[in-house]
Amino acid sequence: MQKKYTHIFFDLDRTLWDFEATAREAFQDIYDRFKLFEAGVKDVVSFKNHYNHHNEILWTQYREGKLTKDILRGLRFKLTLKEFGIENDELAQQIGQHYVQISPLLVNLFPNTYEIMAYLFPKYRLHIITNGFSEVQFIKLRESDLRKYFNKVITSERAGVKKPDAKIFHYALEQAKANIDESIMIGDDPDVDMLGAKNMGMDQVLFDPYSNLMQNGATYYINNLIELKKFL
C-alpha cells in the first residue's frame, strides 16, 4: 500500500536548480570579464574542468567541517589558476567573490520544475534542505520565483550541520513540524540526500536527470521531475 505523505523535502542544487547550466554561463562570464585568455588560460572549458576537480575535493572537506566557507570560496579558484601557472591570490579572491554574486542570478531550472511545483503545492507542505550557502540559496529561490512554494527553507549554515548528517534532517523535521513516516526527501546525490534520509528512516526519491546513476536502494527513482506525479 502506498504511503500517505504530507511533507516533501527537496534538495535545491542539481535537483530543481540546474547547477551545471548556470555554471557554464557563470564561467564564460568570468573568463571574459577577468581576461583569463590573456593571463594564460587557453579556454573556458579547461578552466572549468580544473575548477570542478578542485571544487569537488574542497566541498567534501567543507561538508566534513574541515574547511570554512570563506576559505573554500577563494581557495578553489586559487588552485585552479595555479594549474595554468597563475599565482595571484587577489585575482582568485576577486573571481571567487564574483562567482558567488553572479551565479544565483543566472536562473536555470530543470524541465518541468514550475509544473511540478504547481501540482504539488496544493497537496503537500513543501520544504528545502540544502548544503549550499544561505545567502546564495535564498537569492536563487527569489530570482527563480520558487520561494513562494516552500514553507521552510533549511540550510546547513542555519542548522549548524550538513547533509548527510542525521542532525540536519532532525532539525528540518522539527522546523516543519513533520513526522518521519509522513515525509519524503527528493534529491540528486546518493551519498548525501539519499543516504541521509535513509539513515533517518525517511523515504527518498533519487533524481537522476542525466541517467548516470542506478536506483541505489532509493524508495523511488526518476529522470524527470514530472515523474513525481506517478506516486505523489
Short description:
By secondary structure, this protein is α/β, with parallel strands linked by helices. The chain has ten helices and six strands. It has helices spanning 19-33, 36-39, 44-63, 69-82, 89-102, 113-120, 134-143, 156-159, 166-176, 190-200, and strands at residues 7-10, 125-130, 152-155, 183-187, 203-207, 220-222.
Low-confidence stretches: none
The major β-sheet equals: 6 strands, parallel
Report the average pLDDT across residues.
Answer: 95
Helix content: 40-55%
Shape: elongated
Mind telling me the C-alpha Rg? 18 Å
Quaternary class: single chain
Tell me what you see in this structure:
- With 232 residues, this protein is α/β, with parallel strands linked by helices.
- Helix content is 48%, strand content 12%.
- It has ten helices and six strands, in the order βααααααβαβααβαββ.
- The chain has a six-stranded parallel β-sheet, with helices on both faces.
- Helix 10 links the parallel strand 4 (183-187) and strand 5 (203-207).
- The longest helix is centred in the N-terminal third of the chain and has 20 residues, at 44-63.
- The relative contact order is 0.16.
- The model has no long low-confidence stretch (mean pLDDT 95).
